[in-house]
């Protein structure tokens, strides 16, 4: 069974129109699936919208809680509630389109984790982000490399990743970062454990109206990268297969 996790925060306007096509896609191409939508303390009509759309789909369920805890917490909640293998998480705005799902699942053969990447030569960026976000990304990458390494990855933050099921649940059970640096922590833990990670170019488009505020978490970024590097006590050993 394929488990699909979609974290959401105030996504009623965007996820509502897209969710029907998401369900249709997985019913058609991966009928043995579970879809877990995690509402991260939304203040809009996300819960009501999702509940209405998935009402007649037993393979889809909603997990909702308050207050808002962050994307990392939402993805962790969904992964730990999952039962399938593999486990895929993707963004609610479908910045990476559904057409990329078969490609990333195919690449999982023989590795433990496949991460979507906007930074590789063969990546196709349909709508580029504003210049200030690109500049901030460059600065972030340099700080990340200094504090936690991961230099071999061109893009750690793309919200499109797939894991072998047991690996996903073990990694997220050990993770601590609740907000946007959770991707870095997961890859840091996976690298320390000697897991096989493949970076795959994807098609991607910057979604207008995103709830992600790039500059909002600058202080948290420094704090969380520091935590990942200096307070992570996990042993460097291969996780159980």
TrEMBL record:
Pfam families: Glycos_transf_2. SUPFAM superfamilies: Nucleotide-diphospho-sugar transferases. Coiled coil: none annotated. GO terms for biological process: protein N-linked glycosylation. It is an enzyme of class 2 (transferase). It catalyses: a di-trans,poly-cis-dolichyl phosphate + UDP-alpha-D-glucose = a di-trans,poly-cis-dolichyl beta-D-glucosyl phosphate + UDP. It is a single-pass membrane protein. Its main location: endoplasmic reticulum. Residues 3-158 form the Glycosyltransferase 2-like domain. Belongs to the glycosyltransferase 2 family. This is dolichyl-phosphate beta-glucosyltransferase. It comes from Candidatus Amesbacteria bacterium GW2011_GWA1_47_20.
